[in-house]
Amino acid sequence: MIGRLLLIAILVAAPAFAQRGGGGGGGGEDPAAMSPSVPRSQTQSKAVMFADRLKLDKEQKAQTEPILNEALKEIGQLRNQMGQTRAQIVNSILNNASQDDVNKLVEAYSTAAAQVTAIEVKAFTKICALLKPNQQSRAPSAFTLLADTLDPPGSVGRGGFGGGRRGK
Q1: What is the set of domains in the chain, with CATH numbers?
Q2: Band (26; pLDDT cuts 50, 70, 90)
Q3: Residue 93 needs a FRET pair 20 to 30 A away by CA distance; which of 42, 56, 102, 114 works?
Q4: Per-residue 3-state assignment (H helix, E strand, C coil) for the chain
């Protein structure tokens, strides 16, 4: 199970590092192929901390895995889109595009960021439905861990240009 959580964590973090290291954001490389550069223990700890915070049993962890996998897939697609949009925003500003054009790109980026948050909430809601009554009180404090597992700080999907969406 820990191996699977590690794989999930690597898949979440790899696109962020691929985007940052590429300089252009659109190299077309497979993010999973870049996984050796991912700090595994730090990312793994977020996923493990999430399961530990909720005190998930083995059955709940097994039920949670497909929920997280689907969310990771959806967020990964949006993160790539957001990286491309960020590059377009910067290029538009550098090329003196009209403020209207820049605003449209910023709106597209903001829409994608809102979709990432909606995916996080949808996954969290599904996971909360699996919780036993004695686990439900732990759910609010676990949300940030889930969100950071699905969309790690510093990833392309974060609000702003490299900052975190959630305060630390």
Answers
A1: 2-22+37-150 (1.20.120)
A2: very low
A3: 114
A4: CHHHHHHHHHHHHHHHHHHHHHCCCCCCCCHHHHHHHCCHHHHHHHHHHHHHHHCCCHHHHHHHHHHHHHHHHHHHHHHHHHHHHHHHHHHHHHCCCCHHHHHHHHHHHHHHHHHHHHHHHHHHHHHHHHCCHHHHCCHHHHHHHHHHHHCCCCCCCCCCCCCCCCCC
